[in-house]
Design brief:
- With 156 residues, the protein is an alpha/beta fold.
- The protein has 2 domains: 9-59, lambda repressor-like DNA-binding domains (434 Repressor (Amino-terminal Domain)); 75-152, 3-Layer(aba) Sandwich (Rossmann fold), CATH 3.40.50.
- The protein has helices at residues 19-26, 30-38, 46-59, 86-99, 115-128, 143-152; strands spanning 9-10, 13-14, 75-80, 105-110, 132-135.
- It has a 3-stranded parallel beta sheet with strand order 4-3-5, with helices on both faces. A two-stranded antiparallel ribbon has the order 1-2.
- Strand 3, helix 4 (86-99) and strand 4 (105-110) form a beta-alpha-beta unit.
- It is globular and about 50 Å long.
- The two termini are 24 Å apart.
Length: 156
């Protein structure tokens, strides 16, 4: 289930999952969740990392980005059915030409016209914390897109 079981409630429904919710779900300390989500400063065993990753996925947890100084370029994920297709390769080149001068990054992936791979790549983009995603679905927009987008919305 990709829902948020946070005890935080608002008039608009459940609040986004917090790091504390992830720690509770994974049965680990808040510090362990922080180490996994932020990549350190301490190492975490594979078993604990897998439990935290599973809880992050299950709760659709997204780290808050507010208050952080923007010292890195923006990163955008692009998922297309076939990067070898001339139309999509030209579109990717156009996106790169717009993003590169600003120092921004483009991560492109092909779904190989497979909905399951498309969903996998989208999830990886969201977990990686990309600033935006461009999706050219290979068929109907997967239900997972709605769940991913809902989980990625910043809290007010």
């Amino acid at each position: 289930m990709l829902g948020c079981e946070s005890s935080n409630k608002s008039v608009n429904g459940p609040m986004p999952a917090t790091m504390r919710d992830v720690a509770r779900r994974a049965g680990v300390s808040l510090a362990t969740v922080s180490y996994v989500v932020n990549g350190g400063p301490r190492t975490v065993s594979d078993e604990l990392r897998q439990r935290v990753d599973a809880a992050v996925e299950e709760l659709a947890y997204r780290p808050a980005r507010r208050g952080r100084a923007r010292t890195r370029p923006l990163t955008f994920g692009v998922v297309v059915p076939d990067t070898g297709n001339h139309f999509f390769s030209r579109a990717l080149a156009g996106l790169r030409s717009v993003l590169r001068p600003g120092g921004h990054l483009l991560i492109a992936a092909s779904s190989e016209e497979r909905a399951d791979l498309e969903e996998e790549v989208l999830g990886a983009c969201v977990r990686a914390g990309v600033n935006g995603i461009v999706l050219t679905p290979c068929g109907p927009v997967p239900d997972a897109v709605g769940r991913l987008v809902a989980g990625a919305r910043p809290s007010s």
